[in-house]
Amino acid sequence: MFRLLRQSSVPLGNFSFAGVRSYASAKLFDKILIANRGEIACRVMRTCEKMGIKTVAIYSEPDATAVHTRMADEAHCVGPAASSESYLNVPKILEVIKKTGAQAVHPGYGFLSENANFVKALDEIGVTFIGPRTKAIHAMGDKIESKKLAEQAGVSVIPGFLGEVNSDEEVIKIANEIGYPVMLKASAGGGGKGMRIAWNDKEALEGFKLSKQEARASFGDDRMLIEKFIDNPRHIEIQILADGKGNTVYLNERECSIQRRNQKVVEEAPSPFITPEVREAMGKQAVALSNAVEYRSAGTVEMLVDSQRNFYFLEMNTRLQVEHPITEYITGVDIVEHMIRVAAGESLQIQQKDVQLKGWAIESRVYAEDPYRNFLPSTGTLTTYEEPDTSSGDVRVDSGIAEGSEISMFYDPMISKLCSYGEDRAKAIATMRRALDTYRIAGVQHNIPFLRSVMDNRRFEEGNLSTKFIEEEYPEGFEGYKFDTTQTESLVCAAAVIRYESTRRANSVSQQLRSLSEDIPSVSSMVVNVLGKDYDVEFEEVDVDSYGQAKISFFNTSHIVNYEWEFGEHTIDLQVDSNVVSVQILNETHDGFDVQYCGSKLNVKAQTAVQQTLSRFMPEIAEIDYTNFLMSPMPGKIISIDVNVGDSVTAGQQLAVMEAMKMQNALRAESDSVIKSIEVKPGDNVSVDAVIIEFESK
């Protein structure tokens, strides 16, 4: 399918090149095909448009109306939903390249970005790959080989077994020789897939099995290696740019320690832990490794850093990294532009002395997932989608979706990369808080409540990070935002303002008042319920001639509140004394409002005393008991059923394995039970909350 797309109705997104340097030259390519989808495809297209280069999008059948498909100058379908039949369908993509006359291909990240065979196929038809050469991809894509090369280049490496592991017996033998804990990881892996930490023989065997299966499914290569797991490290990476002509620079570091299941969640640049001396040492080693493989293009050398600032090579990603925007913020370098220029044969146009480090940037990865259910993926249609304001330049949103977009089970559930910038870390955090508070998403579950909680976490504020941050700060999982007294009282004030303004709007519409300024009582009493607690509130307009000022009193305290809100607006901004807050209004209920505050969805009630008394007689809806069922925690595919009807199982026993978003997840019994029935079979696709197994009643 072919479509001309430069439609005026398609926005380029909330992204600005303010502060990012460009370099004048003749046009490098006439047309570039982006072999990817979603936000990264849109990101590359923005730089191409800036450089005057036409773009070609590819898409799978479900992505026919996706933003990246509509954003390109032309677009072509390359197959059905499954990535293996579309975005990884090399013959079909080569066909599109020939048909469109694209002179170069930018792979983004993931999919074919580190596929040496794809690069070779492009070489054979005279099309430029915007990335490294096959030599570097081969060398760095194999974790066993890359570790050997790093050692030869004088890069610090993690102690471990430099070879592939092929059997259960080898796993146990090598793991015990290295000493637990160990990391089992796929040699061809990346993105957290095919990785497991083992603390004993049992976990090593189980992790070996699951990691091999994930690696085979994700990369078509199930070779495994084992290395010492450095407990409680920081994950810090160095961004490099090289032209393959001996010119290589490092663009400082990124701290990526806040991770879940080895997937990065929050990143920042620079790191609050790294000194200038360590930064220089890490940068020089990253450059040495890059030169050792004659690297060309953008790449990232990932390191683990211990508490004494000793650093060890982890891996090199031979592609554009997901979190590259925060490096662009602090350096002013458009990394994608340099990738294109280098691929066209230009020499690198910056030297190490030109690389600046100005200000601080933070990236929050916004995912369609449920943080209250162990971050399980969420699918559905975005019924509401409104990104934060980016006009000031201190907020950047890299996204590839719009209101009405579908989040499906076939691809990564990322909604966007939300970035904030400030002259220092504290200001970058404050800007991120505001951006999260004003980000409107409905139709799917999302992780904004968790991201907002991280921004207010004292340990995060102090920069005291490690890769165990999430498990240590949220040992029982995410249980919701913890509101302090000031935040709670600010929410009480917001609820009072919403109720007061809504009431006088209703009175006007019903003609009980002839206008909004006539005979409005300047003092109003109400009962506000926030977080399960009642507050007897008195709302008093400070100056009846000045809209948006009030004194709100409860519990023998008074707060001066200034606010901006018109009935029907989705967000109310208030200054409660000296505290500035934003509250999203999701919908109105019979006795109050559903709101989103500090990222969390809450119901607040604001009623007269009589209404509050009568509401106590409303019947409560009984909750359904699902304890006798194993239900699918996410949409996915059943890989195996490990029990039979009639089996007695114990708490913690593995019952089934399912795959979702290319990750395999073991489903376990929560208590001792007997299997009554099995409702699915291996190969079945299941939706969230679908019944997998029923247990006998206790």
UniProtKB/TrEMBL annotation:
Transmembrane region(s): none
Chain ranges of the ATP-grasp domain: 147-344
CDD domains in UniProt: biotinyl_domain
The entry's keywords: ATP-binding, Biotin, Ligase, Lipid degradation, Lipid metabolism, Magnesium, Manganese, Metal-binding, Mitochondrion, Nucleotide-binding, Transit peptide
Cofactor(s), names only, from the UniProt record: biotin
Protein name per Swiss-Prot or TrEMBL: Propionyl-CoA carboxylase alpha chain, mitochondrial
A GO CC term attached to the entry: mitochondrial matrix
GO molecular function (one): propionyl-CoA carboxylase activity
Annotated Biotin carboxylation domain residues: 28-475
Domain Lipoyl-binding: 621-696
Domain of life, source organism: Eukaryota
EC number: 6.4.1.3
